[in-house]
Amino acid sequence: MELEYHPHLVPNIFLFVDRRCYPGWRIDKATIGFHDLTFVVDGRANYFINGEKFTVEAGDLVYVPGGSVREAHTFGDCPMRAYPFNFFWAEPHNHVHLPFGVVTKKAITKEILGYIREFNQVWMSKQPFYMIQARALFELILHRLLSNFNRQSTIGIDPRIRKLTAFIADHYSEDITINDLAEKLNLHPVYIGKLFKENTGSSYKKYLHRVRINNAEALLSLGDFTVTEAAERCGFHDISYFSKVFKEMKGYPPSVAKKL
């Protein structure tokens, strides 16, 4: 799940409401620049996202990322009640999408609904520093949604890939190639590469780099290792290449991590 590798995402919520739709309620067709995360708790509605129709009902999560064409209307005989959160990610991350489809069925748990109701109280009362508390509650909601999503995704991972990722976690500092992994499973390297990408969302090389860089960052943050020592302990023998990959993945050079 690529989202977990964006540790600096900060949601800026600008609209939240306990939306109790009247029979003629609708959202006019328009392209949105923000993210719309709507929790449907009663009734029904039709959403049209980029021209595709989605019927939603109680328990559903609706996610419309920025850049989408959005339109909606409720059912007159069964008006929708929902809690929409409209937000931007703080720059420069607003392009990052949550990993959900437009509609996720049965996504609203009692725990999430409890957080939403608490958020509603905070948002409506607007006590001093309420935005800090509101953002914290929204991040708890996102954390629970993403944890549930990741748990469901992990269940479906091919057991052979789970075996390989566990091997990488233990041997990331060694010179392991995709040919080595293929040999362990007696499979062709091209097939393993395809299987790895399908199950993790990353190429083998990118996945290995991520594990190595995350471990190198942890070593540097301790303050006991030089950049060269951290690179070598995490499987990089070319310090220039290590620095290049580190900056691409983290957004800052390894020397900065050492000072954090």
UniProtKB/TrEMBL annotation:
Pfam families: HTH_18 (PF12833). Residues 162-260 form the HTH araC/xylS-type domain. It comes from the Bacteria. Keywords: DNA-binding, Transcription, Transcription regulation. The keyword DNA-binding applies. This is AraC-like DNA-binding protein. It comes from Paenibacillus harenae.
